[in-house]
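Following up on my earlier thread - several people asked me to post the actual chain instead of describing it. Fair enough. Here it is, all 298 residues.
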Amino acid sequence: MLRYLSPTVREIVTQAAAVNLEEVRLRLLRPLMIKDRSGSAFLSVGGRRVRPEQSYIVTKDDLERSLQLVTENSWYAWEQEIQGGYLTLPGGHRVGVAGQAVYAGGRLKTIKNVSSLNFRQARAVTGAADPVMARVLSNGGKKVLSTLIVSPPGCGKTTLLRDLTRQIANCGFQVAVIDERSEIAACYLGVPQLDVGAQTDVLDGYEKGIGVYHALRGLSPQVVVTDEIGHGSDAAILAELARSGVKVIATCHGESWEQLMQKNWARGSLDIFELAVILSRRRGPGTLESVLRVRGAT
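Reply from S.P.:
Thanks for posting it. Predicted structure:
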């Protein structure tokens, strides 16, 4: 990921010797910031962690050079991805883009005057699903229970989802991933950059409804995986999956199963799920709070 940063920023971040680097944030005419295992920090020219007023200030040249590296000097070739607010790099690393929106015909066409770039390190955690696999697989490993992973943002839902996908696929099940935001498999030019298993088909960038339709009609999955359900429109998608008899592994924002069931969209929509995995950050991201058999379990 560092090779896509401007030379100046790359040197500063390298000197910082971050442990498990997660993010590098470039904001025009504002302090350079990173996030690693110890938290967020502003960096000085020498890579030291300092107060904002002592930090290196990101220049227009830093943003432009970084964009040139990310897009390989071809902004227009990446416009479709940019419309989604981010670009995916080799290795699955992601670059979030913010700036001035340009609309045409009532739709977002591109972004100009880029003012922020957020480089996010892709890192699969092999074995993240080990504590729950014995519950997700039942009947001696011959059956997958439809499972909803519930937690607030930043608690490791997608990390757990990815490793569940990998392990379920490697146990012999045909899996289809509806990767709406390219976060699960982190595809680059159609190729998953993170390990999602030997028997997994990835529908990258598909809107959930279309992705599920294509998967069910053409890929014959036994398990469908998707991230971030939580809208009224998801009810119809879940109902279609239930009618098709496939199992579902998904994630959703929430503090607990009880809180989730108080939301209007959730009532009557989550009967497809047999298991709920509740995560928090109480002992760091990915803290497993509970694994619950929920309504709809058989």
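The chain has two domains: 2-120, 130-293. That should answer part of your original question.
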